[in-house]
Write a structure and sequence with these properties.
By secondary structure, this protein is mostly beta strands. The chain is built from one helix and five strands; from the N terminus they run E-E-E-E-H-E. The protein has one helix at about 45-55; strands at about 5-10, 15-20, 25-30, 35, 60. It has a five-stranded mixed beta sheet, with no helix packed on it. Strand 3 and strand 4 form a beta hairpin. It starts with 5 loop residues before the first strand and ends with a strand. The relative contact order is 0.25.
């Protein structure tokens, strides 16, 4: 399967990640850690995508 994620860098260390069904997640990178806000529907390998965007340790925040 082709990577189903669309990656959009935003200002201030934020990356918008849009998934296969148009769900939106955000990766927010700080100086020591990153936060992934939401994890999508499970289609594709989000872990690989996030690890390709940052070397920082990542905390996951679920909003729903």
């Amino acid at each position: 399967m082709k990577n189903p994620y669309k990656i959009e860098p935003l200002p201030n260390g934020v990356t918008r990640i849009t998934g296969y069904t148009d769900e939106i997640m955000y990766l927010v990178c700080g100086e020591k850690k990153a936060a992934l806000v939401d994890t999508g529907t499970g289609v594709g390998n989000l872990r690989d995508v996030v690890q390709g965007l940052t070397d920082l340790p990542v905390e996951i925040l679920l909003t729903h």
